[in-house]
Design a protein that fits this description.
The chain is mainly β. Strands 1, 2, 4, 5, 7, 8, 10, 11, 13, 14, 16, 18, 20 and 21 form a 14-stranded mixed sheet that branches. An 8-stranded mixed sheet has the order 3-6-9-12-15-17-19-24, with no helix packed on it. The protein has helices at residues 13-19, 223-228, and strands at 8-10, 27-30, 34-35, 40-42, 46-49, 54-56, 62-64, 69-73, 76-78, 84-86, 91-95, 98-100, 110-116, 130-134, 137-139, 143-154, 157-160, 174-184, 187-190, 209-218, 221-222, 231-234, 237-240, 252-255. The protein contains 2 helices and 24 strands. The two termini are 33 Å apart. The longest helix is centred in the first third of the chain and has 7 residues, at 13-19.
Length: 256
């Protein structure tokens, strides 16, 4: 528990935006649900205690600057258009958070919850991103995470029940372009009717992974491993590695 003097309680959007500015508070507590009216730029390292409150992003984003750590606990991120955008050398730590109904219209519906800002102008893929996700829930979002770097996911749940948030080209939850992903004790659920993965870029690994880049690894399996095997020892269990041309069954559920 914190004393009131140890954090700033935030109840309005403008105060939240100010707290994320360069001279803002290091630790804040959400005292109310907050609706965004524009994007917020996080210019210094900050920790948010949500206590179950929601950030209604309202079609906007939280943009994390370079060399900044963004830490959130018990916070809901909803209705964003790319909810969190990480710059190079940034770090995002999320504990017991929820992501609901986020899209990513600027990035082909990839990375609706977390998007690592790759330098598309110079066609560079960097692995200078760190994201740690623990005990979080992702419900009815477009493809949740586009990552390039160290991605760690533990004890979390990804689920899609609403066809509004199922892109037939991107039926999965994670797109790892570079670096290493470690996923443990997590569940992936896709439940919908007459939708299938039509992507030919790679495979939907156990209904979870859409893409593993040539230089990336996911739980120790690299791009070639994922392409040539129908089943892999994933969390010490052989799990069907669905190829992209296969139709996904309704109510596909995978424990990882």
């Amino acid at each position: 528990r914190f004393l009131d003097s140890q954090y700033e309680t935030v109840t309005t959007f403008n105060v939240l935006k100010s707290a994320c500015d360069i001279n803002g508070s290091d630790v804040i507590r959400l005292g109310a649900n907050i609706t965004f009216t524009e994007d917020i730029q996080v210019k210094h390292s900050i920790k948010i205690y949500g206590f179950g409150k929601a950030l209604n992003l309202n079609g906007h984003s939280i943009k994390i600057n370079e060399d900044v750590t963004f830490n959130a606990e018990q916070t809901v991120f909803a209705n964003g258009d790319t909810a969190i955008i990480q710059a190079k050398n940034s770090k995002v730590e999320l504990t017991t958070c929820g992501f609901n109904h986020n899209t990513s219209t600027n990035y082909n519906n990839i990375g609706s919850c977390i998007y690592c800002a790759i330098d598309s102008e110079n066609l560079e893929i960097s692995d200078d991103f760190t994201t740690i996700i623990n005990n979080c829930t992702f419900t009815d979002n477009h493809l949740c995470i586009l990552h390039s770097g160290q991605l760690t996911i533990d004890n979390s749940k990804f689920e899609n029940y609403n066809t509004t948030y199922v892109d037939t080209n991107n039926v999965a939850f994670i797109y790892q372009t570079d670096g290493n992903a470690t996923i443990t004790n997590s569940k992936f659920i896709i439940s919908y009717l007459n939708k299938f993965c039509s992507s030919t870029r790679n495979i939907g690994y156990a209904q979870a992974i859409l893409m593993c880049g040539i230089d990336a690894e996911i739980n120790g399996a690299n791009h070639s491993d994922l392409q040539k095997n129908d089943s892999l020892p994933f969390f010490n269990t052989l799990i069907n590695n669905r190829r992209s041309e296969e139709r996904f069954s309704r109510n596909a559920e995978t424990d990882l």
